[in-house]
Amino acid sequence: MAERVYKPFYHHLESPNAEAIKVRFWEKVEIGSPEDCWRWTAKANSKGYGFFKIASYHQVAAHRLSWAIHNRRDPGDLLTLHNCDNPQCVNPVHLRLGTDLDNMEDKMSRGRHRNGDRKGAKNGANKLDLATLAQVIAGFQIGLSNTEIANRLGVSHATISLIRLGKSWTEDSAKLGWKPKPKFKRAVSRPSGERGI
Ligand SMILES: [Zn+2]
């Protein structure tokens, strides 16, 4: 449950090295047309997000740097989100700033589309699969209410409630990192678990 630590980097783009940094950065990108995803070809993590050494002591996420170059400012403590759902992509036109909640909504809407593709548009309201369960758990983890999750995923409120309380899908939920809270503790845990960067 590591907190994301935000470290400003824009000062490097205002230093005498800025042009050299940009050249070194774009050399590692397969630049295409504005509609295309521009693939990062250098170092990446296991999820596909690229990384770039902006200075000997400072590594930044490639897509965040691309956003910063394009928008001439630091993304600050906001996330840099992919409209194209492609972690490798550093096309600044495909990037936008957002919060953890925005990130989760992205994931949920993608999950909904995938489910829709697989099962047809009107899938049974109480039927769940593991992919949807993962979206439900993710919603819990960022503090969404049962109603919010139910509406976003098109699953019944009762289904969500039972999962939250650990009364259904118990084992699968546990595998996905969900531990029901004792009833008297109404704590809502703030962002944890998987998220964008
Ligand atoms: Zn893209």
UniProtKB/TrEMBL annotation:
* A single MF term (Gene Ontology): endonuclease activity
**SUPFAM superfamilies tied to this protein:** His-Me finger endonucleases
Among Pfam families, the record links this protein to: HNH_3
Residues in domain HNH nuclease?
A: 61-104
Q: What is this protein's record name?
A: HNH nuclease domain-containing protein
